[in-house]
């Protein structure tokens, strides 16, 4: 049974494993104050093109999101997210548990634009309602779409004009930045947003997300918040070593490129087999619409999520590729898909 | 510069590293639903001698404590801890951040006994005060002392009579259970307390704590709380693989035994050199009282914490040994201590 | 300038004022443990027809809602509310500030039915999402609609089958129960729901809401939560005296009947004048759709809220009547409306 | 049975009652935006001698404290209080429920001085501990002592040097400012502290506390916090009318003077009867040490709290006088005390 369920089914890239092995018996300072972490941070700052950002390493994404939002907002302030937003749907109320409402905006493609946000600002008029203060977006979004540079610029401008903090959840940021349709770089994020994180867990690390705080006013005492939320890893070097390896050359992007290439191959072949997709997704998640009977047969050999029912006989499924997905597995899947299609 | 600062300065035991390498490219389910985690849990249940406990793996100790206390208590209920308790002093208000007061009880040796707790119960008489509902202890305590089986039995009885949840922070539980003065086993904990955790981070794992919930009434929906607190690791197998390796034979205890043996050696030799200790500590932390001038010289070669000033010329320092501490390093330290003592 | 903005523009009914004056210099116990509060609670229990419910008096509605929800739910549990629900829109994130998500269900008439709730239950499938645990409704709803006995019975049955707590915000409960379309009594609420509150602030009291907890499992330690949320009034008798006066005979319902009668008069006359309404509202709020030019003229003489724009030239306004609204003021308003209509 | 249990046993001063009656049927804006509240605020600003402070009216003290602390502090920041502090002992963890630790400082007379606070600052050294950010004091303290102007000046200077917010709980502020030993005025508070509240509930109002925010940086969006905590009273004028009456002349202080005079009479006569006091208390609470047998007899006629056991045969009791305490009741108490003393 091969899995296209997600991009964290395997361990880590062999270079990361090697780096962990080589440093294993060294003694280092705890809590991210080790030399590996410091070096990794320096390398990422160079990539971002700003030496003045603050970078903190976390173990996971929900942890990063709840620490960031709780640290950045005052109690009466709320975050705005697309209705598909991870913090709205898949984090068990982690943000609300820190005291903050998340305002849901219904959109079709997972992306927030100024015209989607404006009505929410207008509707929150006085102290009987929460005060919208942060715009939370994911790139790529939870349904695989990505922001263009122009879209992010417009959003950034809108947020600055309206004193809104713009925060980007980059759980799969590598896949977005390496998409064929992408026209942005890390350095653009560094200029346009207040904070974002560079996801490692879903791009070949054992675990780890690198939070980048660009806005000076949000930096103060941030490590207190990390510790308070239980997110300060004792052997912080584990994160440092991994991000150092990912960013000492292009490994981070190479891994994302493999995931995207495999997703593109899936899209091409599934299209060739005559199927359509639920949504346009230029990153490492694809959402083909398949007959339920075909899905049933595929499930005997492959593991993946059924995303949603489309009509009486068809459903969209989610196939996720990763840094570790091999072309032979994709081709095998396609072969099965064709075989079951013929036999239907 | 050799470090006696803590027991998480190195990476992990080579067997754990090997297990990670061997399983690296396997695909597994996420979020702790993989086979490694299930096997590790089975092995720990056997050690505890109860198949009916629930076991959940966490990345770190503060994370475990805040998830547990937040899940177990209603909003008006409070935890009771010794004044040295980790949740009171060193977790940046993590427990209060989930809404709960921690009641501090002043004790001398880090340990709570029924007679220490009773006055706090008596002082909380009505709805104008929080309701004490949990007793939080650490074994070993933050200053290295350990509970005897009889002490834990008395505490357990008292808690049950007073409807208090008894929770044991076992960040260094291996060291306690392998202490020469210990007369308890994991199975005793399983019988006497409502929940406890088996610390991995400070006993040779890369990271990881295994929470054991013994009391049925505290088990429901616990995974929701783990997720909400950002503590559900995507590649949960990383924790499972480590605890599987630690408990497939006696590795967990062997590692603790090394830490204790090295601490005992330190105590023996420091005593022989004519120094006294701040507190009786039969586990892997020792607190010798040394002349400030000697401390200054030692600091040029070794890294460790100065615990507290004892008088005008002397301070207690904290030396921590670990699974990775080598006898030659301890002997080297002693040699230096003696050399600097002679030259003082 | 006469106000139809809300039902808390005046002080209190003269009988309540008289009761306050007469008892003013008596000494009583604080925090609701006085004899007036005890008597008021007894009278309300009789009306509800259950001596086994617990009743607690609060100062205001948001305070009641946040204390109730925070006390009843565990951290990972969420409340479900109609998209117009007061806790969703007009309480500044008070519920989220206690750590709980409120799930919004889009409905047209302000009312929740089992078929509205079922999809939300189905969508929350595992520990990556909050667990829906409470259904919050208002009767009347925020847009003036009321629940029939049959509707509440169906909802009650559904909640019990799905282990959901059913809680009714009764800020304007008097108006609902005295509506011409109502077929329920207080005793029906006592049988069908887990908790509800009888609103005083919006029905002639200076302030005050009486929370009724019907479900035994939700009663324990409730006063701790009241105190913790800053809701335990020192001179609790102020609430007791008022509810005693409201329930020693039919005063509570008489006051609501006046509000409803005045609303009915408004509806009748506005209909006669040729205007329609945004929504069917058989309680003390009416939502006529009027030309914007007419609204502008009315605003010179009357204060009320513009509810929403309906088309280019017309808007719905909200007119609220109360225990204190006089027929002459309603007639005066109608006269003006007709006058401005003629002159338009 | 006459009560010396507290200073909120009776209703309100007749002038306040009269003002409520006279305004009863007027229509006013809700939520404190009425003219009475505005006038009351203007009068208080004049007394404080600063037109630039912000004043908000609350219903009760715990509500005020939790709203203030939650609004002023970031999640990792803590308040420092004397071990007797109301927020530490008698508010059911209300502050912790908003996420903040309260650091307890052991003092003997209920007062905090710079030398008491300094060690707490020194002990909180890094991000593993909360960050002390507010100093919470009460004047008078919970055991009746009061701050001199010089003491408050030293504290203010210390707080400003250490970037600590100085907040004064003034539940019984009238009694402090009217004490024979007092050398401060409202205007001194306005200059020396960041925020304080002028207590009404314990000084003759039905309910009500006037929060004064002096520090500009703490003012923004404060009404959002009031609403979120359920503390924005719908008929806000009830608070405005009362504070208007209290401050339109010297009524607020006259009421406090009566409470103090009655307390002084108690102290004088109890001293004359040969008894001592637990603590020096120049405000409206006195703590005489009486034989347990005498206490028992007094309890048959009077209601009051037994504060603490002093030795095997004696206890300290707390007697509280108020704006409503009559000389004849005090003299009656003294008579009984003497009678029972003779007969002992």
From TrEMBL, chains A, B, C, D:
Domain Aromatic amino acid beta-eliminating lyase/threonine aldolase: 16-287
Aminoacyl-tRNA synthetase in keyword set: no
Enzyme class: lyase
Molecular-function GO term, any one: threonine aldolase activity
BP terms from Gene Ontology: amino acid metabolic process
Residues spanning the membrane: none
Top-level division of the source organism's lineage: Bacteria
Keywords associated with the record: Lyase, Pyridoxal phosphate
Names of required cofactors: pyridoxal 5'-phosphate
InterPro entries: ArAA_b-elim_lyase/Thr_aldolase, PyrdxlP-dep_Trfase, PyrdxlP-dep_Trfase_major, PyrdxlP-dep_Trfase_small
EC assignment: 4.1.2.5
PANTHER family: L-THREONINE ALDOLASE-RELATED (PTHR48097), LOW SPECIFICITY L-THREONINE ALDOLASE (PTHR48097:SF5)
Family, similarity comment: Belongs to the threonine aldolase family.
Name of the molecule in the record: Threonine aldolase
